[in-house]
Design a protein that fits this description.
Elements lengths: L18 H20 L28 E7 L14 H5 L29 E4 L4 E4 L3 H4 L5 E8 L5 H10 L9 H9 L9 E5 L24 E3 L17 H20 L5 H24 L6 H6 L5 H18 L4 E6 L11 H25 L6 E6 L3 E7 L3 E5 L3 E7 L6 E3 L1 E2 L6 E3 L2 E2 H11 L9 E3 L2 E3 L10 H5 L1
Parallel strand pairs: 1-7, 1-8, 4-12, 4-15, 5-6, 5-7
Antiparallel strand pairs: 2-3, 4-11, 8-11, 9-10, 13-14, 16-17
Length: 483
Amino acid sequence: MLTEMPATHHTPFGTPRSRRDMLLSAGAGFGGLVLAHLLPNSVLSGPTPNPQPLSSKTPHVLPRAKSIIFLFMEGGPSHLDTFDPKPLLKELSGKPMPPTFKPVILAMGENNSPIMDSPRKWKQHGDGGLWVSDWLPHTATCADDLCVIRSCWTNGLNHSGGVCQMNTGSTIGGRPSLGAWVTYGLGTENENLPAFVVMEDNPGSVINGPRNWSAGFMPAGYQGTPLASGPEPIRFLASPKGTTDGEQQLKLDLLKQLNQKHAAERAGQSELEARIASYELAFRMQAEAPDAVDLKDETAETQALYGLDQKETQGFGRMCLLSRRLVERGVRFVQLYSGAGSKWDAHSGIEKNHGGLCKAVDQPIAALLKDLKRRGLLNDTLVIWGGEFGRTPMSEKGDGRDHNPYGFTMWVAGGGIRGGRTVGTTDDIGLHAVEDRLHVHDLHATFLRVLGVDHMRLSYLNKGRPERPTINEGSPCEKVISG
């Protein structure tokens, strides 16, 4: 029998002694158990250790989409030759930069190169009358699904800084990539596959390399997982011949014990924990991943749709088809690099350069949009297209265009976003964004909002400082999301 004591009396450790206090504390404790269960699975949680950090979490607001496929044209595609026609370029072609526009380019230095016209043929497509050039005839058939953002701008003047900022929000390496923030905030819907996958059309060539899909100061488990192009996207996944599942599990258990012992002496280093998790994920993937990356069960019609039967489109077409299969199976973020190694960087010979690259990606991208749509996946998937910057209206080397971070085009499709329209404008020669200007931080905030994530509420405590995906800047563009 408990001894009755004054309700205010507690032991030095704060344990209640009255029956009333005991019951009250116990009741509150049950609420704490519920709270403890909910917090780790909330997008609001900080870096509290979670035995399953990639488990699916609750968004801040009602999401429009579950996954992102980011089609990255590395090197900087020319908006002036794809989605942002400028009739004035024809009138000014071969002439010096008009004085009206010179103040705009002071940050680029004095540029006396003449204006260069775009020889593209332009047509309006779809019910929305979206302008698309003849370089992208297949993409043009999806015009009513595209929301073209013509007013993007960034701080990255060169490729390294531009690619880094478009991926991480900063021109300087060391911060988590957008894909890492998404997987940290939302987790994955399939713990038997990586949450964040990266593919390059020329593996190992993308500028900055793994920095683009790094987890930065967050645990390494949130970084992207590269998949190789070709018939074996995931190398060394299959068990050695003659090894049973039981033997493989015993090896994995022993390796885990050794790694945990090693990690216990090196607290604060997330790389080893990520390596342990990767071994466990690889074991689970042996059952599901082979099916995810095996295209043999795709119909001949689907493979032809993506251009797998043509040399020019086969490589990027395979990547696009794999990305559809991955988001179909719950992968949260897929990023595809076209022109890995800054191949879209057309300082000269833009006709040959962009002509070949557009041919390589045009049909596969259109196929991806159509395939997602017919399978009912487009509303659940936000597809993003763009590079680190655009190109200048002035010529370089007579037949090329220089970097232009001051005004360029990206587009989004799916995720419940209304297509067949444009948002924002550049000036009359396409040099500078002037209306509804969207910085990289605004773009990232917009992409996150489509997934139901508030970029200012998602934070990670790093060295006592709360870090956020857009570095405490940017705002979601409501014209893109709800327009």
